[in-house]
Design goal:
Layout: H1 3-21, H2 29-44, H3 50-58, E1 59-64, E2 67-72, H4 87-100, H5 106-116, H6 150-158
Antiparallel strand pairs: 1-2
Amino acid sequence: MNSNTRREQHFVEELKKWYTKNKRVLIPRDEYHDSVNNYLAALSSSNKTPRQHYLMRKYEVMQCGHTQKLIRKRANLEEEPVYFVSIEDTFDIIKRCHLLTGHSGRDKMVKELSKKYANITSQKNARVSRHKSNAIPSVIASSLHFLQCHDFIAQCVSQASLNGKKMLSN
């Protein structure tokens, strides 16, 4: 197992640990797919449950090829979609954003990510400390729990290749 795979696995493990404490932002893949399926079921249901009403108010589902993506509810169809991502997909998205922004730092990455992703966010009041194991980074507070410096991301992506994928594409 190469070091990039170990880093990504560690990243996902940390996100899952964070998820057990704070379920407001992160979405595990199985829950993500359940939300998509429940939303689609709500579309055809005449008697909607409170959960289905909630899903209909908050989300839309967009068909992207053979994949269905959960997006933030839009006021009109001309608005750009803002995607929700699963815990398991977060690492790759952040890595691609880091490369797309020219190996930029935290603030520029957060700004770019917030344009396209709903649940990769910044928590402005949190501070990063290398010496405190329970510190919550201000970059993607719930997503980058263990990534406490820009250098770690740079190290991860400098060893990885994008295999010709267009950055930040879904």
